[in-house]
Amino acid sequence: MIFSAFERMVAMRYLRARRQEGFISVIAGFSLLGIALGVATLIIVMSVMNGFRAELLGRILGVNGHAYVYATMGPLEDYGPLAERVKAAPGVVAVMPYVEGQALVSIQGVATGVQVRGIRPEDFRTRPVVGDSVVLGDGNGFGEGGIAIGIRLAQRFGLRVGDELTLISPRGATTAFGTVPRTGRFPIAAIFEVGMSEYDSNIVYMPLETAQAFYRMPGQITALEVFVADPNDIGLLRASLGGAVAGQGRVLDWQQTNSSFFTALQVERNVMFLILSLIIMVAAFNIISSMIMLVKDKGRDIAILRTMGATRGMVMRIFFLSGASIGVIGTVAGFTLGILFCDNIEAIRQSIQSLTGTDLFNAEIYFLSHLPAKIDWREVAQVVGMGIGLSFLATIYPSWRAARLDPVEALRYE
């Protein structure tokens, strides 16, 4: 073994300071606490940011397609053959035509803008994020002329399944008196809750044929939604999708449409990692200060050990083991605390909210209805490795000072 039994015994004895050495023990305790809090904080924050990105990505790619095929100009016409070619491209699992447009919801004098999406009834039911999120009503009624709205939109206007929703389209009929907006009343067949407030309050799903009639697009669609097996591979599949389109349209994938959003999340994540790493570095400096004070206090003991035959290497290993033990124990404690916190973060949030009476995670601000946390074990290993590595580095200089101590000088005035 690297450390002998004698070295381990002396190192552990130095960590248990006597009454007159209590101040050194207090500093070592604060160093251990600092390492533990730094590691735990870094694991928690990175896990929350990973969970936030994964939840947003899952919601966005569940409601929206992984890629879109638009016409070169205007709506897509005679899209059947094009959809078959796109579906035959490698990696593509589904192709769904849809009509998209803006509309105004007007109920008892209160109006708000919504985004209307016309899709086929079978496509509505086969989308897990949408079809499985129906909380009121029946998704099967969506294909019988009824529409589906988000739960936040329903709560805002006090709507229930079976009520009629009035939509006003800006694409109206041209008359001698100008353009008259087109108005339609549609029964509500289902109410869904995706879990992302932006979608739950602004999206209205409508059967494809009904949307084509409402927006005066007979036999036309806005675009084709393309779903692939792995959304992360969309960059590699972009060329094959472009070849399937063959000049009849243009392809736009989710990375292009949401590039600024996810780039901002990545930049914020990297900056948070850098800032929170400073907590561990500060705790490592505390280890240095506590070890230097320990070496100074144990000068006579070091001299006696040297006169009894202990080598400089033995002395260096003793103090290295003392300082490294603080870092290792603190890192393990921080790792345990961070993992437990991440596994129970939503319950902890609910408890804090009930005690303080405040909303710590407003869905209107953060888009999601719950606080997510996704543990990336590779990142956790990096954090633990950084904590242990900084702890080892922090003990090298004090251990070297202890090994260089001259026994004669240490015992001169004893």
Description:
There is one protein chain. The chain is of the alpha+beta class and 414 residues long. The protein folds into 2 domains: 5-59 and 262-412, no CATH class; 67-230, no CATH class. 57% of the residues lie in helices and 21% in strands. It is built from 17 helices and 12 strands. The protein has helices at 5-15, 22-63, 80-87, 121-126, 128-131, 151-157, 197-202, 208-214, 234-245, 254-257, 259-297, 299-307, 312-343, 345-356, 363-366, 377-403, 407-411, and strands at 67-71, 76-77, 92-107, 110-119, 134-137, 147-150, 164-175, 178-192, 203-207, 220-221, 223-228, 249-253. It has a 6-stranded mixed β-barrel with strand order 3-4-9-6-8-7. A two-stranded antiparallel sheet has the order 2-10. A hairpin with a 2-residue loop joins strand 3 and strand 4 (110-119). Helix 1 crosses helix 13 and helix 2 packs antiparallel against helix 16. The chain is elongated, with a radius of gyration of 32 Å. The two termini are 35 Å apart. The mean pLDDT is 80. Residues 274-407 form the ABC3 transporter permease C-terminal domain. Keywords: Cell membrane, Lipoprotein, Membrane, Transmembrane, Transmembrane helix, Transport. It comes from Rhodospirillum centenum (strain ATCC 51521 / SW). It is a multi-pass membrane protein. Residues 31-241 form the MacB-like periplasmic core domain.
> Biggest sheet, open or closed, and with what strands and sense?
6 strands, mixed, barrel
Return the domain count.
Answer: 2
How are the strands of the largest sheet arranged? 3-4-9-6-8-7
Number of strands: 12
CA radius of gyration is 32 Å
Shape annotation? elongated
- For the termini, the CA-CA separation is 35 Å
H/E element string? HHEEHEEHHEEHEEHEHEEHEHHHHHHHH
Task: Give me the number of helical elements.
Answer: 17
Q: Indicate the percent of residues in helices.
A: 55-70%
Low-confidence stretches: none
Q: Kindly report the average pLDDT value.
A: 80
Strand content: 15-25%
**Helix/strand/pairing class, anyone?**
alpha+beta
